[in-house]
Amino acid sequence: MDTSVVESQPTESETTNTSMRPRPTQSEAEAAVRTLIEWAGDNPDREGLRGTPGRVVRAYREFFSGYDEDPATLLGKTFEETSAYDEMIVLRDIRLESHCEHHIVPILGKAHVGYLPAGRVVGISKLARLVEVFAKRMQIQEALTSQIADTIQEVLKPHGVGVVIEAAHQCMTTRGVRKPGVTMVTSRMLGSFRNDSGTRREFLSIIGNPRGDSNGV
Ligand SMILES: [Zn+2]
Q1: Which pTM was predicted?
Q2: Can you name the residues that pair with 163 across neighbouring β-strands?
Q3: Could you tell me the distance, in angstroms and rounded to a whole number, from the CA of residue 99 to the centre of ligand 1?
Q4: What's the CA gap between 107 and 103, in Å, rounded?
Q5: Gap between the Cα atoms of 62 and 153, Å rounded
Q6: Residue-wise DSSP of 136-197
Q7: Span 23-63: which CATH code?
Q8: CA-atom Rg of the chain in angstroms
């Protein structure tokens, strides 16, 4: 393979989709984990740690499986024309497991997704899968929230979309400022969810009015 081929650098907005970058081999990835174990101060050759690099690499494959799937394709596949149904559709308390891109430690919480269809609906499990595809990447909660809402808006073209995520960040609870019990709430409202306070109120009331504001303070 000719490695001297120069590709254009991704712009800021393209950096979430890095699936085109060549990936290191599994043994290169395992060697990197070995280095981190030594960096932490332990001996990667001792009994208990011998299989750890392999396990960590396999866990990474699972934690970050979202890079291998295209979210728009996932939603686009199954939409149906349903002009008869024009009420709000809400999927709430979707279990969310992601990893913060600053420390690669877990972000755990729940997502609520709602939209007001304009002819197209998707199976409810597809909304949960959409959340998962974006969550299984390295993320910040604000971007995750926007990506879910924007994809629904682009693919289904509904009257409006609302996404609210409530999550705890282990980089805050177990290191650094150590604030256990703090939950960050982020939201993204589009279309009628943004413009019509009645629609927004209905959505927020269905999902149980999470406290906090969109800046997560
Ligand atoms: Zn973090």
Answers
A1: 0.84
A2: 113, 188
A3: 8
A4: 10
A5: 27
A6: SSEE-HHHHHHHHHHHHHHHH--SEEEEEEEEEEHHHHSSTT--TT--EEEEEEEEHHHH-H
A7: 1.10.286.10
A8: 20
The CATH number fitting domain 71-206, selected from 1.20.1080.10, 3.30.70.920, 3.30.1130.10, 3.40.190.10: 3.30.1130.10
Model confidence at 160: pLDDT above 60: yes
Q: Quick check: is 112 catalytic? A: no
Q: Is 100 a residue of the active site?
A: yes
Q: Is 101 a catalytic residue?
A: yes
Any idea where the domains of the chain sit in the sequence? 23-63, 71-206
pLDDT value for 217: 34
Of 112, 139, 141, 153, catalytic: 141
Each residue of 139-152: pLDDT tens digit?
999 999 999 999 99
Cα angle value 31/35/41 (rounded, 5°): 145
Active-site residue identified among 99, 112, 159, 169? 169
Respond yes or no: is residue 171 known to be catalytic: yes
Q: For residue 103, how far is its CA from the centre of ligand 1 (angstroms)?
A: 4
